[in-house]
Amino acid sequence: MLNMQRLEIFVAVVEAGSFTGAAQTLGLTKAVVSFNIKKLEEKLGVSLLTRSTRRVAVTDSGERFYHRCQRLLQEAESVFNDVRSDHAGLSGLLRITTTPEYGARVVVPALAAFSAEHPQLRIQHVSSSKNDDLIAGRFDVAIRLGQLTDSSHHAKLIDRFEILPVASPAYLKRYGGSPSLSLEQLAEVSWLAHTRLATPLNWQVLTPEGESVLFRAHLPPVIMADSAASLLAFARCGAGVALLPGWLVQDDVDTGQLVHLLPDHRFPRQGIYALYPNTRHVPEKVRMFIDFLQNWVTHAG
């Protein structure tokens, strides 16, 4: 018979890196933790962990088993939470990761409203410019922006947005540029780029005549940063030209702090996606929040 508590103990030991740390996390004694790991290994007939005086390390078999245990425990928790929600509303923990910029502007207000509707549900929001792994990070939902390439998870399109090349008036004055510069001239400017993009300065651009052409900057970026917020700050300081989401820079464009270059050209529209683990049982809290966020974005727009 499958002993779910032993799986929980094993996962806790791996994540804590020691029997003592797992015992503290679970509120058990070190002896109880050690006994259950021993029994689990005996039942499986393999060594899951290697012990040293200070820490434990995961064997190859243990590493594979750990990831399967994570998924199994998540699914089990989801089933229990869905049954409870039939009677008492959503409960448990909803873990979400977003970029800092879009998170603060859109997702956090939506989460606050969602939380008000489901007071028994605990919410944890993680801001990160990196594409954190959903399984390793135990995230229920990740909100990703741009061109979606990860096919290992379920994904739902929430919205689309424009990306705009922008620069400060001070930069344009210093380097002799203007909002009406050509696409060829734009390839010569000092570019600011995001470190997460494999080819940050290669884009298919739609001209005013409706022709799709490949835009490629002639020089490497003068500055690279790991967040859109940093690139926006560099652009405001006159450091160069940045290609940024319209929803992030539109206020600066409206006030004249930044200038939208080549406004008659269109860079590829980007998507906003809700990603969630590819499991047989999708938790009700995940389905409901994604629908809630899509409705929130639609009406906010």
User: How many alpha or pi helices?
Assistant: 10
How many individual domains? 3
Mean pLDDT reading: 88
Summing up helix and strand content along with how strands pair, one would put the structural category as alpha/beta
CATH class of the largest domain: Alpha Beta
How much of the residues is beta strand, in percent?
15-25%
Strands of the largest sheet, in order across it? 4-3-5-14-6
The biggest sheet, with number of strands, parallel, antiparallel or mixed sense and barrel status, is: 5 strands, mixed
Counting DSSP E segments of at least 2 residues, the number of strands comes to 14
- Radius of gyration, CA atoms, in whole angstroms: 24 Å
Characterization of the model:
The chain has 301 residues and is of the alpha/beta class. The chain folds into three domains: 83 residues, Arc Repressor Mutant, subunit A (Orthogonal Bundle), CATH 1.10.10; 100 residues, Periplasmic binding protein-like II (D-Maltodextrin-Binding Protein, domain 2, 3-Layer(aba) Sandwich), CATH 3.40.190; 106 residues, D-Maltodextrin-Binding Protein, domain 2. It has a five-stranded mixed sheet. Helix 1 packs across helix 2 and helix 1 crosses helix 4. The mean pLDDT is 88.
What descriptors fit this protein?
10 helices; D-Maltodextrin-Binding Protein, domain 2; Arc Repressor Mutant, subunit A; 301 residues; 3 domains; alpha/beta
